[in-house]
Amino acid sequence: MLNKLDTQIQQFLSSEAFGVAGASTNREKYGNKVLRCYLQHTKTVYPINPRAEEIEGIACVKTVADLPTNVKSLSVITPPAITEQVVIEAIAKGIKNIWMQPGAESAKAIANCEQHGINVIAGGACILVVLGYKD
User: Fold this and answer.
1) CB distance 36 to 133 below 8 Å
2) Residue ranges making up the domain that contains 95
3) Contact, 64 vs 21, CB < 8 A?
4) What is the DSSP string of the chain?
5) What pTM does this model have?
6) Degrees, nearest 5: CA angle 27-39-65
7) Is residue 13 exposed (0-12), middle (13-18) or buried (19+ Cβ within 10 Å)?
8) CATH number for 41
9) What is the pLDDT of residues 26-82, one digit of tens each?
10) What pLDDT, on a 0 to 100 scale, did the predictor assign at position 72?
11) How many independent structural domains does the chain possess?
């Protein structure tokens, strides 16, 4: 039987496409590794970065609002104060699942997700471990 976290992860991964808030051009940063992890698993993914044109050969969108409508799951690799803003944008966009990578969590952002019925994964689980990332 699946535990709550497994169920949440399954729901998160069922999205047709994914967004990565905090996507980075620096291959050493987790914002880049998470993006590459999606690519390694042949997922459709959109990097969100207001300053980069493209990352890993994929055109960036500037904000969560710019994501295509088929994106229902969002990985967040941003400082907690930015995460809070990302969550507000995600709620407005209709994002259904948010995975805050370790270090991105904010109690305020988590509470906001819960208030709006978003499937939120936070507090330790890392997508790189769950999916299996190869550097």
Assistant:
1) yes
2) 4-131
3) yes
4) ---HHHHHHHHHHT-SEEEEET--S-TTSHHHHHHHHHHHTT-EEEEE-SS-SEETTEEPBSSGGGS-TTEEEEEE-S-HHHHHHHHHHHHHHT--EEEE-TT---HHHHHHHHHTT-EEE-SS--HHHHHT---
5) 0.96
6) 85
7) middle
8) 3.40.50.720
9) 999 999 999 999 999 999 999 999 999 999 999 999 999 999 999 999 999 999 999
10) 98
11) 1
Measured CA distances, 113 to 87, 94, 99, 119, 127 (Å): 7, 11, 11, 7, 18
Percentage, residues of the chain above pLDDT 90: 96
Residues in the chain: 135
Convert 38-71 to b/e letters by CB count within 10 Å (16 or more is b): beeeebebbbbbeeeeebeebebbeebeebeeeb
* Amino acid at position 121, single letter: I
Residue given tokens 């890392």 in the structure block: 126
Above 70 in pLDDT, residue 25?
yes
